[in-house]
Amino acid sequence: MTIKKEEFGSSNVHGLDDASSKGDVSEEQWQAWSAGRHVKTETFKLKFGTDKFTGELTIAYFWNELGTSFYGRSLQYKITKGAGQSGGNKANVYFFFESADSWGSDSPDAMWQDGEWHNYSRIGSVPVKADKKVRLYIRFIFDSPGSDPKVEENYWLTFSNEK
Asked: Which residue ranges make up each domain of the chain?
């Protein structure tokens, strides 16, 4: 899947730079923009088969005051092999945010499958459609002998003006 990036020239009435045209957001920008905002953190768990592989990804996100811009980041991931499963540490984690535009991050072919949490920080931003919803898509490709199994899921995040 190709992530399409388009230029959005709108200015932000709340004093936040328009990161949507850039897609990527720096750590410094995240810290500045998230200050004083309600940042929600959720862990999403995807399973492949019964007791085969499990992938977990923790995401933090927030919206601007009007719900017209969405800022999200990954924090950590964990991949666990089920009993009797073999495979190395060349798994992949991919996620993207999509609304009026898309931003995504594809990991290197080197993600650990040791059942431990690993830091994984990728930060992005997208402008939001009038329905105030953002689609979060997550895909894990697990490393195993032969063909690598994958699991993918879509989640819908809806704007809430929580303080």
From this structure: 27-158
